[in-house]
Amino acid sequence: KQAPLEAAVLQPLPVEELFSASADQYVLPILGETPSGEPPDPKKCSPREYLEFYIFPVLLPGLAALLHEAEKEKCFEGRRTKFIPSDFLTEWLYNKNPKRKDESFTELFSIPFVKDWLKDRPRPPTPLSLLLSEEEASILIQSFWRGYRVRCDSEIQELRQWQKKLREERHITEVVKKFWAKQEAK
Questions:
Q1: Which of 45, 95, 135, 151 would bridge 49 by S-S if both were Cys, CB 3.0 to 4.6 A apart?
Q2: Domain regions of the chain by residue span
């Protein structure tokens, strides 16, 4: 037997009740095209009119640009990327705002409201795995591996032990501190 909440959640949604108009009437406008006719008063029009006249003509080209950029950044290849779609769309919409028509391009982190938002909510640093290309990452991994293999060599181990012993006997860290103290005093 199902719990009452589960039974209610698993019931199909009556789509007819959600929308008063038939599905045929909900046709999205053509990309970048504003509907014909006089724009309605934004404070008095219906939500549908507001979307069709004020939101979709700006948002749809932005989403198209977002998809092109995502394709260029190889986001559809199933790999993690450094591309953040919401950042791209925020920057695009800010710069394409008709009120900023004569102003120059502004990068995302220079947008005033983004600066304010990030002041209160700083982002974690981007992982190195997303910043490096595959070639750079392979070079880095190979150099670490070669370094590890060299350090495993018995002669190198002997040299490292000798250096450690020498540092401890001659109090090298103290000598270095005194040297830098003299340099800073000059």
A1: 45
A2: 47-125, 134-185
